[in-house]
Amino acid sequence: MRIEAGAAADAIDRFTRDETLEELVAAIERDITANKPAAALDRLHTYCMKKFGHLLDSYGVAWDRKEPLHSRVGKYVKALASHPLRDASRQIIKNAIAVFEKFNYVRNDDSLAHDNELPSCGG
Choosing a second label site near 78 at 20 to 30 A (CA), which of 2, 13, 35, 60? Predict the structure, then answer.
């Protein structure tokens, strides 16, 4: 597995002024540059948790720190339902819930988040 450093770094938004977020983004960038995808995936998951918490706050939606990522995404999708969206956009957003649910699995079973045997990665 190889994560392209430039593409990944462009996708990471510093969405708020926060020392923890700055360190998290720096760690993601270091891990991607060093070709350490297992470490980067764990940090990307944490980043997504923060990002969706931030988005839910911006919509005034209550959330809990113990909720899994796909639950936060689901709440965000429901918050977006009040906006006029095209059918294709609505379907893409709904599919995101399943994608983030799989991300939980990858993070929990294939990254440094827990004592996992890491998948072999080709260059």
Answer: 13
The helices-and-strands tally (H runs, E runs) of the chain is 5, 0
Beta carbons within 10 angstroms of residue 5's beta carbon:
15
- Give the DSSP letter of residue 75: H
pLDDT tens for 2-31 read 555 555 556 788 888 889 899 999 999 998
Mean pLDDT for 37-45 is: 86
113 Cβ neighbours under 8 A, 6+ residues apart: 42, 45, 107
The pLDDT of residue 102: 83
> Average of pLDDT values for 59-73?
93
- 8 Å CB contact between 42 and 113: yes
Tallying the residues shown for the chain, one arrives at 123
Q: Please say whether the beta carbons of 93 and 31 come within 8 A.
A: no
Tokens representing residue 40 in the block:
């980067």
Query: Are 94 and 75 spatial neighbours (Cβ–Cβ below 8 Å)?
Result: no
Q: What is the pLDDT of residue 8?
A: 55
